Amino acid sequence: MSFAQANTDVSTMQDDFIKKMASQYDFDSTSLKKLFDQVIVSETILKAISKPAEKRLPWYKYRNIFLKKKRIIEGVEFLDKNREKLEAAEKQFGVPVEIITAIIGVETFYGRIAGSYRVVDALNTLGFHYPKRAAFFRNEFEQFLLLAREQGFDPLTLKGSYAGAMGMPQFISSSYRHYAIDFDGDNIIDIWNNPDDAIGSVANYFAEHGWQKDKPVIAKVTLEGDKYKSVLGNGLKPDVDESELESLGIKSNSLFEKNEKLKLFEYEQKNTNEHWLAHKNFYVITRYNHSHLYAMAVYQLASEIEKRINKTSQALEQ
Description:
Elements: H1 3-25, H2 29-37, H3 43-50, H4 59-66, H5 69-81, H6 83-93, H7 97-108, E1 117-118, H8 119-129, H9 134-151, E2 159-160, H10 173-179, H11 195-208, E3 218-223, E4 240-241, H12 245-248, E5 250-251, E6 261-268, E7 273-278, H13 280-288, H14 292-317
Antiparallel strand pairs: 1-2, 3-5, 3-7, 4-6, 6-7
Helix pairs in contact: 1-2, 4-14, 5-7, 5-14, 6-11, 7-11, 7-14, 8-9, 9-10, 10-11, 13-14
């Protein structure tokens, strides 16, 4: 396909997109055309999404990105500073304060690294110039324009990641519209600058995806034989019945509910591999980011934050 033909095709797709937004959602076509006149196509974004660094890393290197001392300490500080809202979210949605904190810590270092790309540029680039996932990102562009109108935001000023994820919890546009909430009662859902809304939105997202209050997340196990290999590497959804553990040679000191569905994961260390058995709550974390490495990083960061808080509390009581 020639460069001229490619540009013609993109122009046609953008025209069709504008017509859809006008007819289906009553947007003004002239205003949308002016918006498209002001967006860019970013080669940096196309390169970033084609080769995400985290997908090429073994667990022990991936873990080191998120379990550094600084991120743990700042997680404790974030939790202490926002304890009232975190505890309110835990009470309402059942999601532990450490898990909510860890999500925000992994995603944006507690809001400090929330992305520097204009969301419109990211969604234009990926929706019209990245065929592999163009339909998905055009849908997100649609959702983005709707949320900007609903919240009274200027779409040209909102910034996020190279994939169009926004704010402290890095919600894509559809997640923003479905799960983000006003958690401080000011009638604005601001997940960029308002930690209250970010906290409530993360907790709501988890609750809506089936988080089970006061239930475990994941447990380390030991293995005997090689029958366990038959249940490794088959997606993220729990598919191993509790009754199968013994026959598969999977052993743990943890307790599992009768007939509970679980999932076995392998994590590569420098000199060996670890194996962990995940409960449904771990699967819920993977709904936020479809990676068992990501979910484990969130879980372990939450655990380290909780340990440090408990250690400080014990020291103060002595």
